Amino acid sequence: MAPRPPMGWNSWNSFAGTITEAQALETAAIMRDKLLPSGYDIFTVDIQWYEPEASSYTYNANPIPALDAHGRLVPAPNRFPSAAKGQGFAPLAAKVHAMGLKFGIHVMRGIARHAVKQNLPVLGTAYRARDIADTSSICSWNPDMYGVDMTKPGAQEYYDGLFRLYASWGVDFVKMDDMSRPYDAHAPEIEAAARAIARCGRPMMLSLSPGETPVLRGEHVRRHAQMWRISDDFWDEWAQLEAQFTRLENWTPYRGPGSWPDADMLPMGRLALGERNTRFTPDEQRTLMTLWSIARSPLIMGGDLRHLDDATLALLTNPEVLAVNQRSTGNAPHFLEDGIRAWSAWGEDGKGRYLALFNTGDKPRDVTVPLRTVGMAGPAKLRDLWQRRDLAPVRDSVITHLAAHAGVLFRLDGMG
């Protein structure tokens, strides 16, 4: 389902839970024009699309979500008018598909508390919401749902009906939240969602959120999902970016086609309901894109595309950098010295060698990397992928100067 790291846009960083149909269509059109040519093709409506009163990053304590007769969440018609008369997201998805994009939605683990309160019937069964709900299993940060007790009759049928509904809407990508933490407690519902997707009649990528997904559960998660979060929500703070280095290093054994550890969305450009621009410096933004690319994390832009500036667009669409994310192999970290991080990878053809270097310290550093450290012998051609220009060939080592929090990305090609 995901032979290469998924690329796209998600509404959370810029709209919280408030996005409307008009805003979604406006954003999708910009994505089609600006990002789709570079491969960003998954357009995702994040949390609370079923909540008529959603207004910020704070959740309503006692929400009354839009539901169908079987307790399944549906788009709030005051925000998504085309969802009226039982059409759900089908009309919006059709318009997104017509732009050449895939359509994604965010969903929460479990069954709506409001459906349990009303004790609505589970589609295709003799059971009702209270028969399958685990009212002791609740999300610590969102009040919308109860967990589903997968030992109960009707539980799998509930999830099957849920994903058949998404398939009927034309959904291509599901970001399923409150899943990866605590992982073992939620593993039965992870498995249930994967089974439901296999039965729904439509190919659908599954992305699990939030993290930190335990590395020891890597074999299990890669069997059931195409991508999974390795951290809690990632925002534009240097300490959070620095922490992602170790997490991405630790997930190296589980990275590969159909199996992508997810370092979370790219909080760049205009963020937080338009209140501010990213707090990352230009060097930190380049470090972010370099790390996500060399570690082959999914690339999901989070900033408001209606305010997409040229500098951010250039960072997102550099073709030589994106080639590392999409078409490299053997991606792995190297340990050189404190404050310096290094990764290397092979080009997809097995010839060129990619080298990413980072200074996570607060002072400028000169860095020397012997070619043998990354499995090469000199001499070698050297190309700066961010500058998109060739540098002087190197004989034995790559030598570069890095500002604080800065990163570089090179390609080495042997001259022998």
From TrEMBL:
Gene3D superfamilies: Aldolase class I, Golgi alpha-mannosidase II. Transmembrane segments: none annotated. It comes from the Bacteria. InterPro entries: Aldolase_TIM (IPR013785), GH (IPR017853), Glyco_hydro_27 (IPR002241), Glyco_hydro_b (IPR013780), Melibiase_C (IPR041233). Pfam families: Melibiase_2 (PF16499), Melibiase_C (PF17801). Keywords: Glycosidase, Hydrolase, Signal. GO terms for biological process: carbohydrate metabolic process. The keyword Nucleotide-binding does not apply. Belongs to the glycosyl hydrolase 27 family. This is Alpha-galactosidase. It comes from Novosphingobium barchaimii LL02.
